[in-house]
Design goal:
heterodimer; A: mainly alpha; 12 helices; B: alpha+beta; twelve-stranded mixed beta sheet; 23 strands
Chain lengths: 307, 561
């Protein structure tokens, strides 16, 4: 197990190192630069722009800049935003917290909706309940989240005036972004719960439990669902990766100041320190989620460890 | 006074009435003075009923105003900002400002006198003023700001409009003398703007590039608490604000509001949703397609003003292969633009075609520019043909094997993209293949200085001729400033010199006319359209009065119930 753990960790570190180089080069190779990102007046002369970028060390070769950057990271200096001068550690606290609130709420909403409906659809297989739930799941997977966001804003904000259309961080402002972020995951989880339930409902142990006279709800909830949830839980690792990707869109649409919103904004403004740090953070997050999933698989199934 | 010329005056009167700055009696007197009949006046009053932004009632202290803003926030450094935002009107003050009628009125200066030879202006500075940090705000502090603007190492992009100033002297704490190289009647138009707001230069030097990001030190009624571009700017009441002497501001003491929170809302349709939904109290710049809906909402008041702005595109004079250095080619492309249809289709008629560089609402505007740049496809084709361009097999013009194709860069924003597409389609009708590149802001301004074929740009400035001089002055060509088309037009340079040496109002008007005609004819850039400014407030907001002469409202009088 120790060598398996070391191998997975080594892969993770390697991917992170390669990503940091790619991100660093990609940002600096993209057209434009921080002088056009809002720090200087758009009317400033070329001379002033060049002087500003020189002060930031951007006139040096990219590999030199990269090693300087690594040196700063090694000493714990994450840098500051070029656009508003805020230390990245401070940005991390506020934006990561906001993203965490949104992401966890979306996950919670997703499971609270998906698991009961998935169970119900399996138990009432081929009835209108099943068809309605699966129809909803197909819609959830098919509707692009930016479109769903617009529809929700139109009805709940503009027509009904019930929810704020954007912003942070009151509970009502969380509802629509969380629903949009949860939509696709809910659909996928619902379908997986249903199919997993159907698989286990045919197992011999279920027949035995029923023969023993156990009430049907106990058979379903205590025994079948517990077994059926194993693949659903495994899916959580993957879903964390999806959440990170979708958060870039959802946070931008709803102006929810999380990591995704900050990352998109920093790339547009060529705020290099912020863009590279938060890109790496998201990659690290996805890698960690997969690392935990790998370790969990390894613990559950020794054959995977050997392979 | 004929109908056309009295229209802006009537509009101004209506705006002031709707804005609550004129009583009903004052409005009627003003309208009669403009020659309007009683029936007409009655009709206007009926139309305005229910739309006034009331100042009546007893002001209540407290609350935070939430204001939606259609642009991104600029660094709060007057000397080197993108453009100045509403927060400038809260945290800073200038020597003078404009009242709602366009007159210069005191702010930091209490009075001023111009020398009879026109070579100096002496300002009397209010005594005992301080910056928010407690540092003294006296004549020496103001001199430091003006010297900072003049110093090229501070990078003020507006240095070229300060060239007529020889020096600034501060003989004592309350006397500031601006000495001029030659008469410069336009001086007040310059110092009243946010770019000449008074800041504590010592603090700016101390913070370096972080001034305007992490902190500011001004003398306005509010102190900066947070500046987050792309999201919000927040201020809180400055409890030691000494009050104002500006006559049209009714509240002479500390502001009523606890604070103001401006939210940048770049998604155009969302602005209207947020104010209708009560998420914000006031709004600048709703999308044009939402105006009618907002006007029909009984919870809202919509104020429409002319805006000191314009959309234009440059044609790089260095593209001699395309003939952009030939005035006939530039005029031909301009004749291919149907400005009236753009105003109708994209602005929903809330704007006007620009045949010259500035809006018809400006007092310097001359209608003579309208003889140029009229939509005439036949003339455009004929001029291009005379320049040697012939239609190729696919309809695109060709000359000596060279296709008439070029790239226009625009800043990625929905209206810019729509306008770029329309210009592209209209130029296609005369055989010109325009490629529109929509760039994010980090790329756009860097590329604008990298010799692009064409740049589409939107300017916003309370005295538009001054800002337009920056885009066309030959000293700002070749990367030295925002003359992105590298236009070198002697007639335009001569007109700028005349504008910057006008000794009196008549001289300024004459130079302004010369300048507009030179641009309309010579086209160092191609003017396209100008949009109207729209402001919206919910009925619980009082004392909030956007006006024609200031880019943003002052917040001293604003209170919420």
């Amino acid at each position: 197990m120790a060598s398996y753990l070391a191998r997975r960790t080594g892969y993770m570190v390697l991917i992170l190192a390669i990503s940091s180089v790619v991100i660093f080069y990609a940002l600096r190779s993209a057209p434009g630069g921080p002088s056009g990102g809002g720090v200087l007046s758009p009317l400033s002369s070329q001379e002033i722009r060049q002087a500003y970028e020189k002060r930031l060390g951007l006139d040096q070769p990219i590999y030199t800049q990269y090693f300087i950057y690594l040196g700063h990271i090694a000493t714990g200096d994450l840098g500051t935003s070029l656009v508003n001068g805020t230390p990245i550690t401070e940005l991390l606290q506020t934006h990561a917290r906001n993203s965490l609130i949104l992401g966890l709420t979306a996950l919670l909403v997703s499971y609270l909706i998906a698991i009961p409906l998935g169970v119900l659809a399996a138990v009432k297989r081929n009835t209108w309940v099943d068809q309605l739930a699966m129809g909803g799941a197909i819609l959830g997977m098919g509707i692009p989240n930016f479109w769903l966001a617009l529809i929700l804003v139109y009805f709940f904000s503009l027509r009904l005036g019930l929810l704020p259309s954007a912003g942070c961080c009151d509970p009502p402002q969380l509802i629509m972004p969380a629903l949009v972020l949860a939509a696709e995951g809910t659909a996928v989880t619902m379908r997986m719960t249903r199919s997993s339930m159907l698989e286990h409902l045919r197992d011999d142990f279920v027949r035995a439990l029923r023969a023993k006279g156990l009430p049907e709800w106990q058979v379903i909830i205590r025994h079948v669902l517990r077994n059926a949830l194993i693949p659903v839980i495994s899916l959580t690792g993957l879903r964390l990766g999806w959440l990170v990707g979708y958060a870039l869109i959802v946070e931008t649409i709803f102006r929810w100041p999380g990591v995704g919103y900050l990352l998109v904004d920093s790339i547009i403004r060529r705020d290099y320190p912020v863009a590279q740090f938060f890109s790496l953070l998201l990659i690290l997050f996805v890698l960690l989620a997969n690392w935990f999933a790998d370790i969990a698989y390894g613990l559950a199934n020794p054959r995977i460890r050997v392979a | 006074m004929d109908g056309a010329s009295s229209r802006p005056a009537v509009q101004g009167l209506v705006d002031q009435y709707v804005g609550g700055r004129l009583s009903r009696r004052q409005f009627v007197k003003g309208a009669l003075a403009l020659g309007l009949g009683i029936t007409t006046i009655g009709g206007i009053l009926a139309a305005c009923s229910g739309a006034t932004n009331s100042t009546s009632g007893t002001p209540k202290k407290g609350g935070t105003l939430k204001e939606g803003y259609d642009l991104d926030f600029s660094r709060l450094d007057p000397i080197n900002t993108n453009w100045y935002d509403p927060a400038f009107y809260a945290v800073y003050e200038s020597l003078v400002t404009n009242d709602p009628q366009g007159n210069y009125v005191p702010q930091i200066a209490s009075s001023w006198t111009a020398a009879s030879d026109g070579l100096s202006v002496t300002f009397k500075i209010r005594s005992g003023l301080k910056f928010q940090s407690g540092a003294p705000l006296n004549a020496a502090a103001i001199k430091a700001v003006y010297d900072g603007i003049a110093d090229p190492k501070n990078g003020s992009p507006l240095g070229s409009v300060w060239v007529p100033v020889a020096s600034t002297d501060a003989p004592d704490d309350t006397t500031l003398v601006i000495k001029l190289k030659h008469p410069y009647f336009d001086l007040f138009n310059i110092v009243k703007t946010g770019y000449w707001d008074i800041i504590n230069m010592a603090y700016r030097t101390q913070l370096g590039d972080k001034y305007g990001q992490q902190g500011v030190d001004g003398s306005g009624p509010f102190k900066l608490t947070e500046w987050v571009p792309g999201s919000h700017t927040s201020v809180k009441r400055w409890e030691d604000y000494p009050g104002t002497v500006t006559p049209f501001i009714q509240n002479k003491g500390k502001p009523y509001l606890d604070g103001i929170n401006w939210l940048t809302i770049l998604d155009a349709p969302q602005r209207a949703i947020q104010i209708q939904n009560g998420e914000i109290d006031t709004l600048r710049g709703p999308a044009f397609q939402d105006i009618t809906r907002l006007q029909a909402d009984s919870n809202l008041t919509v104020t429409q003003l002319k805006e000191w702005s314009g959309y234009f595109f440059s044609l790089n004079f260095k593209r001699t292969d395309l003939g952009f250095n030939d005035v006939n080619v530039r005029q031909a492309l301009s004749h291919a633009i149907d400005r009236a249809s753009i105003v109708k289709a994209l602005l929903f008629t809330h704007g006007e075609p620009l045949y010259g560089p500035i809006t018809s609402a400006d007092k310097s505007y001359t209608k003579d520019v309208e003889q140029f740049n009229q939509f005439d496809v036949t003339k455009a084709k004929s001029m291009l043909s005379a320049a040697g361009w012939k239609a190729g097999s696919d309809g695109i013009l060709v000359k000596g094997g060279k296709r008439f194709t070029f790239e226009m860069i625009i800043q990625a924003e929905s209206f810019n993209q729509q306008l770029g597409s329309v210009i592209q389609a209209q130029l296609k009708t005369v055989g010109v293949d325009l490629k529109v590149s929509s760039l994010d802001r980090g790329t756009f301004f860097n590329k604008a200085f990298a010799n692009p074929d064409s740049v589409m740009f939107f300017y916003l400035w309370p005295v538009p001729i001054d800002v337009v001089t920056l885009f066309v002055n030959s000293v700002n060509a070749n990367g030295k400033g925002p003359n992105w088309g590298n236009a070198v037009v002697p007639q335009v340079d001569a007109a700028i010199a005349a504008w910057q040496s006008a000794a009196n109002q008549d001289g300024l008007v004459a130079a302004g006319k010369q300048f507009q005609l030179a641009i309309a004819e010579q086209l160092p850039f191609v003017p396209v359209i100008n949009r109207d400014a729209f402001w919206v407030n919910r009925k619980n907001v009082h004392g909030w009065h956007p006006d024609q002469w200031n880019l943003y409202p002052y917040y001293n009088d604003v209170w919420l119930d």
